[in-house]
Design the sequence.
């Protein structure tokens, strides 16, 4: 840990062990708005920090700040809401190595656990019980060069690959990448429009026209709550 970083200040001033602590932006109870578990009442654990800067990111408030929390404390707060589903997201959750411990403990506690991850960080050590929802970043995100293609080899049938699409050019990139890597043979593939960028109906029609083996999704929480905090 770099001297003078926020983490090292926390670690030297805190009385408790840092071995099982994570920097957390928020924990909230909502309806899952994305991917295969869409619609389920879910507790979200949003980890602070991300090494990417997707131009359309809707969660820039999670890049900095947050609070250091013991993993057992996080589990206790999750339990209060009495939900079967837990979604670990961020920021980029896997940027904090101890996220792997949180995922493992959530699975041991019996939750249906999903992980939203950028696809830029190795997913090979994620607990196999976790449903990974892994992005491949399309060119208009500005972060396409960060895609870690070896991650495709670590996907399980219950995982999902998500491509967030901002333009027709992004769509064509996504269509070609799915075909080239036969991603739909590995797991479910989701195409999602960038909220406010590409017309959702246009994306839906392109998928129909090209007869793609992918699932269209809209961010349900944005339709329900228009991006309000805590949802
Ligand atoms: C905020 S990210 C956090 C997890 C991880 N960093 C990632 O990118 O997957 C959660 C999901 O929201 C998607 N997302 C972020 N901003 C979006 C936007 N403006 N429109 C549609 N999806 C968006 C991301 O692509 C990702 O699939
Ligand atoms: N309701 C709701 N569902 C979500 N699914 C993934 C989210 C995320 O930010 O990763 C998210 C979110 O922020 N809210
Ligand atoms: S990787 Fe995720 S959290 Fe990071 S900038 Fe991109 S969408 Fe936002
Ligand atoms: Mg979100």
Sequence:
């Amino acid at each position: 840990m770099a001297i003078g970083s926020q983490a090292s200040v926390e670690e030297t001033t805190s009385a408790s062990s840092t071995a099982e602590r994570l920097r957390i932006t928020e924990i909230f109870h909502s309806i899952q708005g994305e991917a295969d578990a869409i619609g389920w009442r879910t507790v979200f654990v949003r980890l602070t920090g991300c090494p990417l800067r997707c131009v359309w990111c809707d969660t820039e408030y999670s890049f900095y700040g947050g609070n250091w929390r013991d993993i057992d404390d996080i589990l206790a707060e999750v339990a209060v809401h009495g939900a079967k589903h837990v979604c670990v997201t961020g920021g980029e959750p896997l940027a904090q190595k101890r996220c792997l411990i949180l995922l493992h403990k959530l699975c041991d506690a019996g939750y249906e656990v999903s992980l939203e991850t950028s696809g830029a960080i190795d997913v090979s050590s994620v607990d196999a019980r976790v449903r990974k929802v892994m992005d491949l970043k399309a060119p208009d995100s500005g972060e396409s060069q960060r895609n870690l293609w070896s991650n495709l080899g670590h996907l399980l049938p219950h995982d999902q690959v998500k491509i967030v699409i901002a333009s027709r050019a992004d769509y064509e990139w996504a269509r070609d990448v799915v075909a080239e890597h036969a991603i739909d043979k590995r797991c479910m593939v989701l195409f999602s429009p960038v909220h406010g960028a590409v017309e959702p109906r246009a994306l839906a029609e392109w998928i129909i026209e090209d007869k793609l083996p992918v699932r269209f999704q809209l961010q349900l929480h944005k339709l329900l709550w228009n991006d309000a905090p805590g949802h």
